[in-house]
Amino acid sequence: MTEEDKKLLSTFETQLRHLIFLHDKIKRENAELKRLLENEKLKNEKVQAQYDELEINYTNLKTATAISLNGSDVKETKLRLSKLVREVDKCIALLNE
């Protein structure tokens, strides 16, 4: 093996080690990013659940407010009650299937 071949082999080994190092570094970064993404997904699910719960509470509050009105906005109250009756009818129909 000539001196030039040894030099080329040494350069190749150095570059190969560097590539392996970069590969390992990228694998670690990828694992960290996957962990962060999973954490963000969990946070997003929690926020979505809170949003859904608040939306239900808001709808219930609007309904309760509409029902408790003393003669004002009777039309709106009737519409909300009609909507509730339709929802109950749908539930009953689903149970009967």
List keywords for this structure.
mainly alpha; 97 residues; 2 helices; 0% strand; single chain
Describe this structure in words.
The protein has 97 residues and is an all-alpha fold. It has one domain (3-70). Helix content is 92%, strand content 0%. It has 2 helices and no strands. The mean pLDDT is 88.
Sheet-strand content, in percent, reads: under 5%
Number of strands: 0
The total number of structural domains is 1
The termini sit apart by 84 Å
Q: Return the string of H and E elements.
A: HH
Largest sheet report: none
Structure annotation, total helices: 2
Low-confidence stretches: none
In helices, the fraction of residues equals over 70%
Gyration radius, in Å = 33 Å
Oligomer classification: single chain
Overall mean pLDDT stands at: 88
Q: Could you say which structural class the secondary elements and strand pairing correspond to?
A: mainly alpha
Overall geometric form: rod-shaped
